[in-house]
Amino acid sequence: MQLSRALRHAPAARHVAPAAVRIGVLLAFSALGSLPGSAGVLPEDEGDVMYHRYEGGGITVQGPSVLIRKKLGDNFSVSYNYYVDIISSASIDVLLTASPYKETRTQQSGSLEYQHGKTTYSVGYIHSREPDYIADTSIFSLSQDMFGDLTTVTMSYSRGWDHVYRDIKLADGAIVNDPTFAQQVDHRTYGVGLTQVLTRNMLLSLNYQALTDQGYLQSPYREVVYLTPGVGKGWATAPQVYPGTHTSNATSADLKYYLPYRAALDFFYRYYTDTWGIGANTLQLGYTQPWRHWIFDGTLRYYRQNAANFYNDLFPRANAQNFEARDRELAAFSSYTVGVGASYEFQVPRAPWITKNTLNLRYDHLMIDYTDFHTLYNTTVIPAGGENELPLYRLDANIIQLFYSLYF
Amino acid sequence: MKHRIAGLAALLFALPLFGAVDPNSPAPDFLLNGQSGKPVALDQFKGQVVMLNFWASWCGPCRQEFPLLDDIYKKYNKLGFTMIGVNVEPDSKAANEWLKQTPVTFPILYDTDSKVSKLYGVAGMPSTVIVDRKGMVRMIHRGYKPGDEQEYLSSIRALVRE
Amino acid sequence: MRALHLLIGLAVCYALSACAPIEPWVKPYEREHLADPIMALNRDPISSEYLVHVFGTREGAHGATGSAGGGCGCN
After folding, report:
1. Chain C interface residues (partner B, CB cutoff 8 A)
2. Residue B10 domain-assigned?
3. For residues A84 and A61, what is the distance between their CA atoms, to the nearest angstrom?
């Protein structure tokens, strides 16, 4: 009785989760590296320990990632990854309607690869858990080498099931789970890929992926803003309403070129569209330069997207549309990322079972310029000249990765 | 007319076999430089069973196989068997560095312009060709997976008895 | 009639993969550069997967980031 009364009177300040919503989808192929690494051979046995850190926009996300991969017999390879995101946040989304918070997301994944002749089969499973979001994903892929091992064709399928919960803050400040809120999401992806050796020095990889999501696709915490000219601050908030389905297509090309003095160039391009009206282009250039025991990497990434058709930074009035969103991920923006990395290879004496050790450091700087997301805090008042006098939000983030890899 | 068609069909089927070797055909002779820099010909080994192993330092299964090939060489050399490691790399530096770390006792020849690789139609890395005492190709094996050495051994044991 | 026999012969030939109009133009013994670790499509999966996750949580676009193939082509 006490608890339900407390829930009804939960204050405006709420616990906000990051965009955990689409994690199931985008992890479908990431976490495991479950696509076979190279033609004809199972991946090497390895162990990796990483510290990762993202800092920007008032959020710090850091944590470990541990990977182990081992061959079993001649035809099997298993891998396991343990990954944690420790989030402490006071991001602009949080500052708008909620108070700063701390949260931990833990993810475990495993995969099994089987190689038979020129074919490699792979199955994988990912389980991601945080206080208000549980995501499970299963992945299947098949890779076939053909035409004198110049061509590799890959097909993949993944299925994800998410359970979305909601935390609320009680009057006494405690954060509890809202027992009245439980939603689900269903994700499916289908992918095909072709990697072709073009010359002794050039490799081209083409990929296509279709993704569908169904269910509760929004964050239960974020809200939209609508203008209330002449009333209070000039704006008010209302709950977001997302469509219940989402279908998208992504096509990419990756070209790698070997330079005669021993270096590598990488050109990557991806085109993305979806049924929410988002179109996005991703372009990345990479340069890899080995030198003695070192390998240096530099990357430049450009990304641009237009807004979803139900996105609006500031809606003209309450209930302006059937579907309304103000998530930054759906806004129109362009982003640049500059990255540098250094990898040092060394031997460990008296340990002949270790074939190689590397110590790696990577730094990326991410800059996002939003063209239709204004900086709005809880206390902001719409200026006399109108909402367009508010500054557009700009994100600067530092991303650091420090990891040790052991090959045995 | 029928002869012409048969001839054409035979030619079509024969085309991919150019530049390859068949079991029970003579092993093509070649001349390559060895580790001492002196040229070595395959014909020098007539009368012995010869196992040609086409390898490269950048090829994982090749490196994995090498110590086993050395064991086979040491065991059967006295019975009139020789192992020849034909390195297919245009630049021998990486191969020699690797050999310094993982030395073998059998002769290494350097096919830097890929002439012999083409001559033998090497279709996978590594590739093994076993030639009998009369210079005829008796076994061709592509690739290496642990356990393949048993195939080599059964072939070698039979051939050294000839 | 002769042409028809020839075409059938070719079709059977292709079907059996006994011959191909084009031979693989990079031979297995010419893959030195492709086998170099710096030419791997995904040299450090633990790192590239983390970055896919970082961008994926902030962007609307997802997918088509995985690749398989290339390398030494051994076995």
Report:
1. 2, 5-6, 9-10, 13, 18-20, 23, 27-32, 35-36, 72-75
2. no
3. 9
- Within chain A, what is the greatest distance between any pair of CA atoms? 77
- Identify any residues that bridge with A146 across adjacent strands, giving them in sequence order: A151
Task: Please indicate, yes or no, if residue B13 is contained in any of the structural domains.
Answer: no
Interface of C with A in 30-69 (CB under 8 A): 30-34, 36-69
Span A90-130, pLDDT tens digits:
666 665 555 667 889 999 999 999 999 889 999 999 999 99
State the CATH number of the domain containing residue B100.
Answer: 3.40.30.10
- Full domain range(s) for residue B81: 19-160
Tell me the mean pLDDT in the region A206-219: 96
What proportion of chain A, given as a percentage, has pLDDT over 70?
88
Return the residue in A16, A23, A26, A328 with the most chain C beta carbons within 10 A, the one to mutate for interface testing.
A26
The answer to whether position B58 is within a domain reads yes
Distance CA A9, CA A168 (A): 10
pTM value is: 0.86
Question: Quick one: pLDDT at residue A174?
Answer: 81
Asked if the structure places residue B7 within a domain, the reply is no
| Chain B residues with CB-CB distance to C74 below 8 A | 59-62, 124-126, 143-144
The two three-digit tokens of residue A174, written as one number: 């405690």
Q: Would an 8 Å CB–CB cutoff place A349 in contact with chain B?
A: no
Q: Is C13 on the interface with A (CB under 8 A)?
A: no
Contact C75 B90 (CB under 8 A): no
- Our CA-based measurement puts residue A355 at a distance from the nearest CA of chain B, in whole angstroms, of 12
Number of domains in chain B: 1
What was the pLDDT predicted at A175?
A: 82
Give yes or no for a contact between A251 and A208, defined as CB atoms under 8 angstroms apart: yes
Question: Does an H or E element contain B49, and which?
Answer: strand B49-55
Mean pLDDT of all residues in chain C? 82
Domain A2-407 fold? Porin (2.40.160)
Mean local confidence (pLDDT), A162-179:
88
A252: contact with C, CB 8 A cutoff: yes
| Cα angle A191-A192-A198, degrees, rounded to a multiple of 5 | 145
What's A149's DSSP letter? T
pLDDT score recorded for residue A190? 97
Of B12, B89, B143, the CB nearest to C10: B12
pLDDT tens digits for range A28-67? 344 344 444 455 678 889 999 999 999 999 899 999 999 9
* pLDDT higher than threshold 70 for residue B10: no
Helix extents (H) in chain B: 2-14, 60-76, 93-101, 115-119, 149-160
- ipTM associated with this complex: 0.89
Give the residue from C29, C33, C36, C75 with the most B CB atoms within 10 Å of its CB, the best one to mutate: C29
Name which of A10-14, A57-61, A153-157 the model is least confident about: A10-14
